[in-house]
Amino acid sequence: MQKKYELYRGKVKTLYSTNDPDLLVIEFRDAVSALDGKRIEYFKRKGLINNKLNYFIMSMLEKSGISTHVQSLYSHNEVVVKNLDMIPLECVIRNRSAGSLVQRLGVVEGRVLDPPIFEIFLKNDSKHDPLVNESHCQTLNLVDMNHLVCMRGLSFKINDFLYRLFDSLDLILVDFKLEFGLFDGKVVLGDEFSPDSARLWDRDTLNKMDKDIYRCGLPGLIDAYEDLADRLGVILD
Ligand code: UDP
């Protein structure tokens, strides 16, 4: 399999075609973004770290029976994935209150959410990815409702698996975002799982070990991502 042409350059990742129409290559660049891409900065090694973390987590999910798009590592900061027909929604699971939930509802940060909350956001940068509900999805035909049922079920299944995994490493999985797509008509997990798209707190200190470090203008983003890789046993070099 050979990487061919750049198809799409996102804020921190680039997508390439390959000589196999069913496969793509995702490059994780050394960039971090916030505020819908209004802030973008460069951090050496970040692409490598997120690529390896994402590959590790996706492989663990695959072993636990969840279909993901990840196929194999292509280079230190690139991965081969299945070419999914992406569903333009973001699924968020929240085990503790943080981020936009705190801003929207005034809930105190860190409150345990039992049962966890499932939210859907429409992928639309110009509208700042608005929150939508199942009724919007159905009436506005944003997604096939059978696929949405699958996405919801898979999101909770992934949460059960990852919450326990991170708990065993003394980390709290506060919240995370997932994106799904279709391959041969089946709902498959796409995009990434990384500390860019999840909130992880150290259980003892409640220190942030995710992109909130950057969002809050704190130092130590790469140190925290490397600490995370170390706890998971992910070899970076
Ligand atoms: N998230 C993401 N991409 C987005 C929006 C959110 O990966 O475009 C992740 C975010 O990192 C967090 C979770 O989804 O882990 C919930 O994010 P939230 O709705 O609280 O928004 P935020 O305050 O992070 O913008």
TrEMBL record:
Pathway assignment: Purine metabolism; IMP biosynthesis via de novo pathway; 5-amino-1-(5-phospho-D-ribosyl)imidazole-4-carboxamide from 5-amino-1-(5-phospho-D-ribosyl)imidazole-4-carboxylate: step 1/2
Keywords per UniProt: ATP-binding, Ligase, Nucleotide-binding, Purine biosynthesis
Protein name: Phosphoribosylaminoimidazole-succinocarboxamide synthase
Lineage, broadest ranks: Bacteria, Pseudomonadati, Pseudomonadota, Gammaproteobacteria, Enterobacterales
Transmembrane residue ranges: none
Protein EC: 6.3.2.6
GO molecular function, a single term: ATP binding
GO cellular component: cytosol
Superkingdom to which the source organism belongs: Bacteria
Catalysis: reaction(s): 5-amino-1-(5-phospho-D-ribosyl)imidazole-4-carboxylate + L-aspartate + ATP = (2S)-2-[5-amino-1-(5-phospho-beta-D-ribosyl)imidazole-4-carboxamido]succinate + ADP + phosphate + 2 H(+)
Domain annotation SAICAR synthetase/ADE2 N-terminal: ranges: 7-230
InterPro entries in alphabetical order: SAICAR_synt/ADE2_N, SAICAR_synt_PurC, SAICAR_synth, SAICAR_synthetase, SAICAR_synthetase_CS
Gene Ontology biological-process entries: 'de novo' IMP biosynthetic process; cobalamin biosynthetic process
Family (UniProt): Belongs to the SAICAR synthetase family.
